[in-house]
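Journal club prep — side note

Before the paper discussion, L.F. wants everyone to see what a predicted structure for a comparable chain looks like in token form. Sequence:
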Amino acid sequence: MANLWMFVLGLAITILTSALVVIYLRPSLAQLLTDLCGSQERAAFWTAFSTITIGSVPLIFALADVPTTSASPLLQIADQLKWGLIGMVLSVLVLGWVLRGFITRQLPRAEGKS
């Protein structure tokens, strides 16, 4: 039963960390997407999509870390959080890579209009 609560605590810490990253990135991401998409409606969709991705991928990684009975509870939580953070970094890096591609394509067009 203690393993179950350690697993739940690790998930809660992962969810909290994901929520803080989403809260931090969302305003800047929404502004960037509004510039790239050209309309508020399109930007709102892609902001929501990005928020769900950044929030859920770490949770998926943390859920994949199954607790063992041999490890100490603190090490179990640390391992689960490690996988959650790996998922978060991967989701943010992929999002940044995709957005960089769109920003790079938009730059020549914006410079030509000046």
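L.F.'s comment for the group: The chain has a mean pLDDT of 86. Keep this in mind when we get to the figures.
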